[in-house]
Here is the input.
Amino acid sequence: MTAMSKSYRDLDIWKKSFSLAKKVYAFCKLLPSDEKYGLVSQIQRSAVSVPSNIAEGQQRGSDKEFKRFLLITKGSLAELSTQLLLAGEIYSLEVSELNESVEELQKMVHGLIKKL
Here is the structure.
């Protein structure tokens, strides 16, 4: 697999997930401070786990391990999508752009899993 020969930082999927995590942190600043240990913490953890799992899985050195970490990434993206929708509805915030990024990453992860 060509992804194995690259650094995880060279992978488009990692770049997009890293960018999403930064956007999610900016979004979390819009949430009330009393959510610091609630939704904010959960949302940030989910967002950070996406590029982190892509990086760790790619660095494991085998397609089987990479695939395992990509499956974990799928779960983190599902969590993130759910948490963003909840925060958006509770606090009347726009989350469609963030969730479009999540959906794009979900498709990329699915495609990469099939490729491995």
The radius of gyration is 14 Å.
